[in-house]
Amino acid sequence: MLKSKKQRNAVNAILMMVFVFAVVLVLNLFSTQFFMRFDVTENNNYSISSATKTMLKNVDDTVTITAYFTRELPGYLLVRNQEVKDMLTEFEAVSNGKVSVSFLDPSTDTDVEKDAQEIGIPTLQFNVVEKDAFQVTNGYLGIVVQYGDAKEIIPFVQDSASLEYDIAVIVNRITREKVPMVGIANLSGASILVAHDVLERQYALQDILLSDGNLIPDDVDALIVFSSTDSLSSRSQYVLDQFLMRGGSMLMLAEGTRINWDTLTAETLDSSIFDLLGQWGVRLHKNLVLDASNEFAGFRTDQTQFFVPYPFWVKTQRDGFNPDSGIVNKLESAVFPWVSSVAVLDTTLTDATEYIDLVRTTNHAWELDKDWQLNPQMIQPPLEDTFKSYVLALMLSGHFESFFSKETIPGRTVDDGGSQASNTVPKEDQENFLASTEQGRLIVVGDIDFAVDANINRFSANKILFSNMVDALASDDALIAIRSKSITDRPLQTLTDSQKSWIRWGTIFGVPILFSLYGLVRFIRRRNQTNPF
Asked: CA-to-CA distance for 492 and 412, rounded, in angstroms?
């Protein structure tokens, strides 16, 4: 009887194994016909965002994505290869037939390899170590996106985390009828090649020379001004003023102080940009903001170079970004070196002008507007009760009043061929003068340095913030949500000295006390169980 029971158990176990195997086999067969993934990351980093889905659904024709991927890649690239395939497959799945994806392996077909090279997909060389021998192998990791006759390539997929944004930028550019024009007026002389390259991916760019006195062309949709440390001429002020009055969108990067990095000295500026911003409702303070939340800065002595936390390099954390603004509410951090604070002028603004803070410091910030001490070893924070939060960037939209009137329009210097140039007011300026607007948009940041090459390269979040601001002004809001989706930083929370002391002593004495209390409770419980009466 016992033997028979053992036999029945064995048969049941075998039948259960067969049943489970059959279920798994059927599920695998069905899974090949359906695409489904579960993304449990905080910002759904590995899923197509709703902004991308909306963009794809609004496409009139089919977008063809061809991935030229080598199947046999080195081990360290296999994960990236699979992530890219998953992302592209999901692009096709969520597009309702608007996206067609195909995968080709140039290493197995000479015709495909020839096509890839003609399109512009480069042959890559990968280092491989096999059987204790170093080898070099060739391969492909490029993507071609095509819409009608328009075609653009991603020569090499370097990071799968940014692939959704890269493809969305291409799709957005090649499917729209008009590419927005962004003007750049670099009055500061700062190096902005990286910012220029970032914007060039999705916009048509035009350098604006304010000194020639010509009004900004009508086809410029948004204008970026890297404000000069010198005063603007009246004519340059007028050119900027009339661009905003015609309902233009402007990103103004300006500073209230001039820094000499070599001597670590500062001086306040006396630029006419302050008056212009004041008329538009913004006060740019002639100060420098310091914050307990800051980044490391490098300094050099005669003997060595050292890096120290530097309060003048303000690091804004998640709590410093306005949660109600789509421009910044997905950002984790940004760094503003030598930043001045900004504020709105309530006496200038009307109810027809909307105002929103974009970026603030922590509540442990302070300012210097005189007695500059920039040496990192000499900086003394003030008393805690004097700390406050400062606004570093803000946005105004709606109604603006012109800085000028018809009677005060400045003339434009014209060379009439004589010995001196004449300063005349063009007739068209008198006829087309705009005294106000109801559709202006203005973002003001109290810092130029956050967007220059050195800092936009070092702090990737600065690049995202700068791009988001331009997108918001150039009516490309959809790309903001896609670009800002990835987590960029997880900074530690800024603590006061008293909070640090509580944590320090709590770590030293708290843990032993907790273990002692636990042991005491155990002892009392065991004694009560042994002697219940």
From this structure: 53
Do 238 and 322 have their domain in common? yes
Q: Helix and strand tally (H, E) in the chain? A: 14, 24
What's the total number of domains in the chain? 3
Task: Let me know whether 371 and 250 are in one domain.
Answer: yes
Q: Are 177 and 191 in contact (CB under 8 A)?
A: no
> Is pLDDT of 126 > 80?
no
Q: Cβ distance 245 to 276 under 8 Å?
A: no
Note whether 299 and 367 are within 8 A (CB).
no
In a domain, residue 489? The reply is no
pLDDT band at 419 (very low <50, low <70, confident <90, very high): very low
The residue type of 212 is: D
The sign one gets for the Cα dihedral 326, 329, 335, 339 is positive
Does residue 197 sit in the same domain as residue 329? yes
Q: What residue numbers bound the domain in which 518 lies?
A: 502-527
∠452-458-462 over CA atoms, to 5°? Answer: 60
Could you count the other beta carbons within 10 Å of the beta carbon of residue 356? 15
Domain identity same for 189 and 281: yes
Count of beta carbons in the 10 Å neighbourhood of residue 358: 26
Which of residues 299 and 76 earns the better pLDDT score?
A: 299
CA 181 to chain centre: 20
130 shares its domain with 205 = no
User: Phi, psi (5° rounding) for residue 113?
Assistant: -65, -40
Q: Residue written as tokens 């803070």?
A: 357
On whether both 159 and 185 belong to a single domain, the answer is: no
Q: What is the pLDDT of residues 77-115, one digit of tens each?
A: 777 778 888 888 888 888 888 889 999 988 888 888 888
| Integer Cα distance of 320 and 391 in angstroms | 9
CA distance 464 to 472: 12
How many Å apart are CA 62 and CA 175, to the nearest integer?
10
Q: Buried b vs exposed e over 388-414: b needs ≥16 C-beta within 10 Å?
A: ebbbbbbbbbbbbbbbbeeeebbebee
Residues 204 and 90 in one domain: no
What would the pLDDT profile of 273-318 be if each residue is shown by its tens digit? 999 999 999 999 999 999 999 999 888 777 778 889 999 999 999 8
pLDDT bin (cut points 50, 70, 90) of residue 418 is: very low
What's the rounded Cα separation, in Å, for the pair 421 and 415? 5
DSSP 255: -
Least confident of 181-195, 434-448, 460-474, 492-506: 492-506
* pTM summary value: 0.77
492 in a structural domain = no
Paired tokens of 274: 């302050």
